Amino acid sequence: MLFLTVLTTSTLIYNAHKLMRTPNLCAAVLVKDAETLDRAFQQEASYLFHEKEQLGFDFIHRTVECTKAGLGLKFFAVLAAMGEQGLGAYIDRQFQLAQEAYEYIRELPEFECPVSPQSNILCFRIQGSDVLQIAIRDRLMAEGSFHLSTTVFKSKRYLRMVFMSPHTGMEQVKQLIARVREMAEEVKRKNEG
What we know:
By secondary structure, the chain is α+β, with helices and mostly antiparallel strands.
């Protein structure tokens, strides 16, 4: 999946904010050998690292951000609320929605999708220049109606949808496409006049 990065055969970085219903700054570094992690976080700070009387395991030796050691709680809360099956169903739904949006958009003559989505991310563009794609994205963001980013694939700029909200459905995709059409026409008229 796109939110996993493999550093070595024994290290995996997992970023939960794209598809695990958590806000930003919720990631994990998974290692095969815990000693690897212990060696990575050897720090000297007498105000942090000393014998303590408090109960439980002190994770401060295994975090980059010292006082923010509880960041994993975001994911734990989601998992506790939804359960593994609920989270799995949510992920399946988002992947399916991206596929349905792809099938809808690729049939529209003035649009193109470079590849079929393999996750909850779909890239598309309307006929026109790369500048047009960016202008449309900027206008959508400014009016606050839809949140899109852009990316370049094979030397062409594409609009990029990431399906994260459980409230997004095909109706919103169709509204987005209608708004993209309107904005493309507005930009073309403005440039002609």
